[in-house]
Amino acid sequence: MRRYFFLLISIAVLLSLTLPSIISGNIAFVFDMGRDQLWTRNMVELKRPTLIGPWGSIAGVFFGPLWFYLLSIPYLIFNGDPRAAVLLPLASNLAAMIIGWKVLRKYNHPQAADLYAVLFGVSPVIVGLSSFAFHANLLPLTTLLFFLGFYGFHKSLFINHKSSFNGLYLSALMASLSFHLEPVAGVMLTIFLGLWLIGTIIINKARINNSLIRLFIYSLIVFTAPFLPQFVFELRHDFIQTKSLMSYFQGENHSLGGELALGQRITERITKLAGTLTHSLFPTEFTSGKWIIFVAFILLIVLSLIKQKKKPEKDRFFVYCLLFSVYFILFHYLAYTFLFPAELKGWYLYGFSSLFILSMSLILENIKSQSRLFSVLVTVFTVVIVFLSINPIQRFFGAKKPMPPENLGTQMEVVDWIYKDAITKSQPFVVYTYTPPVYDYHYEYLLWWRGTRKFHLLPAEFSYRPGETSYSQYKTEFMSKQWKPEDAKLIYLIIEPDSLAKRLTGWMGNFPKAKQLETKEFPSKVKVLFGTI
Questions:
Q1: Cα separation of 471 and 475, whole Å?
Q2: How far is CA 527 from CA 160, 418, 422, 495, in A?
Q3: What are φ and ψ of residue 100, in 5° steps?
Q4: What is the per-residue pLDDT across 288-342, written as a single tens digit (0 to 9) for each?
Q5: How far is Cα 420 from Cα 426, in angstroms, rounded to an integer?
Q6: Measuring CA to CA, which residue among 268, 265, 333, 273 is closest to residue 297?
Q7: Which of 10, 266, 282, 455 has a Cα at 20 to 30 A from 59?
């Protein structure tokens, strides 16, 4: 039991930093989350499996459907409660913590294992990704497994000479599954996979034999299998995604937007990488020093490798992990700079966090082993990081702020108030939502979910404007069977804050029949205008 002490404490810390917010609804629930819940609902309630996932930034291109199928699990268990969806990234990151800890112990790095668990449990990036439901939040786990598969392949091929080991299968599968979670990250992992394999074989002068060829063929099959639903979709829809991708690379499809000049990309990419590293390891107080931290991290890797080279017996896992981290960072920097002209979104790099924490844990263990003084310094450093990350003074004694408009708890408060008010008036009613992204997926889902699960009532119509159903697939299947829009006597207008007043004025023009409306304002600054029509 003693060996599990730090792991169990770290699990408890991560849960304490995330579960209270999830249970209370103090979690983000916006455009993407609402859309995903609607698609999952359509799959489960209508029993219509999907072949594709969410649409991507490139028009006509879709993610793989894995995310929706994963979401269906908490949907079924918790009866559609959107808070349950957050348990997916939380479980994924807990799995990444446990797997990383076990692997470090397996390769004789027990102190690094404990450091990894502790740093992982308080990492601002990991805590953040474990606190809202988004497909890219699963990348820390897939990236960690991607690396471990590579090491397993390398070890079996060049150390233990057991070519039957399926480490390459694992890396191929993780690269493929990343297309379901974030296609841009999937593309980069796939290119890296190919280049790393070629480089590994050339540098180590591996002999190409039937066993190795068979391994590559099986790995290709494993990589291809998760694309089967999308391939069926392509056959049914005249290869729309293939054509859209070709159009993008030919410069005819500019839907991705945000393209940067080469000079801007050179600095923007390194800034984003430095920011991801800093937020993976340190609390927000260190944000301003991200360049120093990034340079220090690279220098520590280089110095650690130089010192390891002088040892008569090298620690193969230690060396491989640090080298892999350097090559991984360098490849992504060059690929994103020269092959990807669009702005680098922060979630493309979510997977780096587990690799950064793994490498830093090994480095700190190495420093700690140098002398008693260094051991004390590393311990103090870790304690300070943990204390600042948890921030117990602010967490337990700081003033509580109202939840912002994008939080689930805020939206549930608004929706519940509308239902309670409408029920007391016992008349048909309609609800329309003004939200800056235009499409009101989050409120559409909550109005349906709360209406069917708690109040057993639905509005005669709920949308972002009267008569609009085209933006939401199968919407008519989930509308009120009791009333029609023309039956409505009451109207409720949900208005989220927006800095562009002209847009709100234009939207209000959709309701010429609404008479003098009363206003209900919530602490989140969300307003509900209500009255008769």
A1: 9
A2: 66, 11, 16, 5
A3: -60, -40
A4: 889 999 999 999 999 999 888 877 777 889 999 999 999 999 999 999 999 888 8
A5: 10
A6: 273
A7: 266
Q: In the chain, helix, strand, coil percent, each to 5?
A: 65, 5, 30
Alpha helix (H) ranges present in 57-86?
66-77
Contact between residue 131 and residue 86 where contact means Cβ atoms under 8 Å apart:
yes
List strands edge to edge, sheet with 490-495: 461-463, 429-434, 490-495, 527-532, 518-521
Tokens of 141: 């786990």
Which residues on adjacent β-strands are paired with residue 431?
A: 462, 492
Global pTM value: 0.92
Token code pair at residue 505:
């004025």
Q: Give tens-digit pLDDT for 419-477.
A: 999 999 999 999 999 999 999 999 999 999 999 999 999 999 999 999 999 899 899 99
Q: Angle at Cα 338 formed by Cα 332 and Cα 341, nearest 5°?
A: 100
H or E segment and range at residue 55: none
CA gap 355, 280 in Å, rounded: 10
Tell me which H or E stretch contains 317. helix 316-338
| Cα–Cα nearest to 419, from 476, 376, 459 | 459
Go through 283-318 and write b for each residue having 16 or more CB atoms within 10 A of its CB, e for each that does not: beebeeebeebbeebeebbeebeeebeeeeeebebb
The whole-angstrom separation of Cα 168 and Cα 150 is 6
Average pLDDT over residues 79-102: 97
Cβ burial, residue 150 (10 Å; 0-12/13-18/19+): buried
